[in-house]
Amino acid sequence: MAVVAVAAGRLLRLRAAAAEGRWHRWRGDAVARSFLQPASARKDAAQLRQVAHFTFQPDPESHEYGQTQKMNLFQSITSALDNSLAKDPTAVIFGEDVAFGGVFRCTVGLRDKYGKDRVFNTPLCEQGIVGFGIGLAVTGATAIAEIQFADYIFPAFDQIVNEAAKYRYRSGDLFNCGSLTIRAPWGCVGHGALYHSQSPEAFFAHCPGIKVVIPRSPFQAKGLLLSCIEDKNPCIFFEPKILYRAAVEQVPVEPYNIPLSQAEVIQEGSDVTLVAWGTQVHVIREVASMAQEKLGVSCEVIDLKTIIPWDVDTVCKSVIKTGRLLISHEAPLTGGFASEISSTVQRWFFLLLLLKQHLQGWGCGSSGSALAWHACGPGSILSTTYQQRCCVRRELKSKY
Amino acid sequence: MAVAISVARVWGPRRGLGQATLLLLRQPMARGLARFHPPRQQQQQQQFSSLDDKPQFPGASAEFVDKLEFIQPNVISGIPIYRVMDRQGQIINPSEDPNLPQEKVLKFYRSMTLLNTMDRILYESQRQGRISFYMTNYGEEGTHVGSAAALDSTDLVFGQYREAGVLMYRDYPLELFMAQCYGNVSDPGKGRQMPVHYGCNERHFVTISSPLATQIPQAVGAAYAAKRANANRVVICYFGEGAASEGDAHAGFNFAATLECPIIFFCRNNGYAISTPTSEQYRGDGIAARGPGYGIMSIRVDGNDVFAVYNATKEARRRAVAENQPFLIEAMTYRIGHHSTSDDSSAYRSVDEVNYWDKQDHPISRLRLYLLSRGWWDEEQEKAWRKQSRKKVMEAFEQAERKPKPSPYLLFSDVYQEMPTQLRKQQESLARHLQTYGEHYPLDHFDKQLHLGGHVCSSC
């Protein structure tokens, strides 16, 4: 009996093994293997969920502004807000969930320190948050509004574009809401999908009257945010959410300002100009070092920082040197802010090329880019005489 | 146990964070910031208990009921309409008579009639092609003047576009009304907006903008700032019953209530939003009925009764400032004129309907009857005043016509406080264009500005 049972058992196991073998062959070995084996044993490590697509590169510590402290991005924001509320008694912070510290912890501790009339929750209504902020600012108080995600800024689009941006202009400077700053987490974080990852700066770039600013690091964030808060125009400050914890730097404890509308050349180069803002600055820095290493290409890297009004001169000066421009952003390609930069630079260089030919025709010689730069600098290229303009126009006509 | 539960109910609606969240938040923080205070959060937590069969929900303070019954919205007999005078200008209940001095009531009358005269002349001037556009205030003068008179002169006003009487009451000069409508060089708004988009910072009247209801949450923010500044000021926010359908209105009401702002929401319910009658604008009992839904003290008044408007606004102002809470006043009235010069209202309403309001229930007539019955006015004064007001308006009108328009270079200033480089380049580009092609533009009508203006930001 036992022998029969054992034999039967062995037979069943053999049949099972055969069946399993057939099943494996049918499904493909790789699938079976990965199904059965622990994750760490897998050869294809890309299956693992990536933490980030870049490495944050901190800037060297700045000794310009006194004592510094190690802070990540959200802590540098808290520090900027703390400084603002400390020195400006009219300053208030409001938005969804800011009272307990905020969903990204940017306002932790501020309500306890400054009081519930200065750091408070609002109902869940972005158009109300921005409208309310505009009203505060119209009376002269400093209004710091938080939109929980940049993806949710659109209900406030009318208040931002039709009201905040136009307040000073339409009233003939009788009224303004310059002391309004809107902050919002911005950009890819990996798992955010459609509604926690957006970069809407291009929508606002088309709106004169507001400023849009995007920092690349904690040190930059604090200085730029303080500048936005003190700026006499309504500002939107987008904070790359993937950097909230990932970016750590030494940041001054005291307040300091980084000027708006000034792009920064963070790495000099001679072959190509790379322009980006926010998180993507770190990506293109890696690209720059890879290009140097693998292709021997020397890249000049520019952090644009302010999207509107943007620093045309720094970018153009760089492209004069390198002759090539590459812009990288997370937002969709069509109508993205790269198109504004590239069309402005191309228009500028088209005129530059024609004028250079013209100046050479007049015997200015080909003393090259230095003279061309002086003659064609931002001021002079646009204040050429009537005659020169005619010549340029003739050139244009002859080419088309 | 019972004591604990009753104490918990006193703390009521405010709910602190749960224990779990307390733990989550106890994270390392940058030094120099205040530390988290657990005791306060725990204090605010309600003692939950099912021993007592009362509702524990944080969202509503209410009793249980075991009968299935829907609340029926009451539109048949809605919120009653407060009035002081009847249609013949007689005080109905003497205890409600504000007993205002003669001079003040005469100022009401003169403001309303001067506005009416200015409206007639400027409407005509649009018809003649002298100005591009105009909106009259016919029939609503009582809402403007009654409310404006009840405020302090420093109370901030956010309007929609049909509140010129508020500015008129605050003695805004005819010359400046006209300057804005003509967009001439004297316009403090620098000629940038369509007519009737007035603004005056000295008189605390925020510049009008075209998008509807956007001013509502802004007014709430301004009121919050006034509260923080202990300014003893109220903010008043005017809007029509149509604009009250906008999302911004909902936002404004909710924010005002939750943030406890000293604000008066003043709704001019004039029966129409361009061609849309109220039956197509809302199904509830008007705007006043929405107030209690937000937790806002609300009242409905006869907007054609200037004393009713005055009394309601006066009381609302007193309490809004004293108690830091919003008030909603829905002033029922009728838009006698067309929506604007771009509208012909005979396309959607009968001339008989308009005539009824013009003849039988007009704020100016009712006040005149009151003045006559008090012996404070008579036919002679009426004739003289009509002549005088018309003369004043015509003089201002003729002067405004003669003035040039502002310099075209003002297109570029005030976009930002400082003029950024790119805008300055655009301004220079216009200058060069006009140098070459100026003959094709009516530059003679424009102010000659020899230098390009605007403070230029050197770092931009």
Structure notes:
The complex is a heterodimer of chains A (400) and B (460). Chain A has 400 residues and is of the alpha/beta class. Helix content of chain A is 45%, strand content 14%. Chain A has helices at 2-27, 29-36, 73-87, 110-114, 126-138, 157-163, 167-170, 201-205, 218-230, 243-246, 280-295, 312-322, 337-364, 368-375, 378-381, 386-399, and strands spanning 68-72, 92-95, 119-121, 143-146, 180-186, 211-213, 235-240, 248-252, 264-267, 272-276, 299-303, 306-308, 325-327. In chain A, the strands form 3 sheets. Chain A has a 7-stranded mixed β-sheet, sandwiched between helices. In chain A, β6, α9 and β7 (235-240) form a beta-alpha-beta unit. In chain A, α5 packs parallel to α6. Chain A starts with a helix and ends with a helix. Chain B has 2 domains: 94-342 and 353-402, 3-Layer(aba) Sandwich (Rossmann fold); 408-440, no CATH class. In chain B, the strands form 2 sheets. Chain B has a 6-stranded parallel β-sheet with strand order 1-7-8-4-3-2, sandwiched between helices. A two-stranded antiparallel sheet of chain B has the order 5-6. In chain B, α7 (174-182) crosses α14 (379-402) and α8 (215-228) packs parallel to α9 (247-258). Chain B starts with a helix and ends in a 23-residue tail after the last helix. Mean pLDDT of chain B is 90; it is low at 1-43 and 455-460. Chains A and B meet through α3, α4, α5, α6 and α7 of A and α8, α9 and α15 of B. Chain B: Residues 109-408 form the Dehydrogenase E1 component domain. Chain B: It comes from Ictidomys tridecemlineatus. Chain B: Belongs to the BCKDHA family. Chain B: One of its GO terms (biological process) is branched-chain alpha-keto acid decarboxylation to branched-chain acyl-CoA.
Distance between the termini of chain A: 101 Å
Radius of gyration of chain B using CA atoms only: 27 Å
Identify the CATH homologous superfamily of the largest domain in chain B: Thiamin diphosphate (ThDP)-binding fold, Pyr/PP domains
**Quaternary organisation:** heterodimer
What is the beta-strand fraction of chain A? 5-15%
State the CATH architecture of the largest domain in chain B.
3-Layer(aba) Sandwich
- Alpha-carbon distance between the two ends of chain B: 67 Å
Keywords (chain B): Metal-binding, Mitochondrion, Oxidoreductase, Potassium, Thiamine pyrophosphate, Transit peptide
Domain Dehydrogenase E1 component (chain B): 109-408
Organism (chain B): Ictidomys tridecemlineatus
Protein name (chain B): 2-oxoisovalerate dehydrogenase subunit alpha
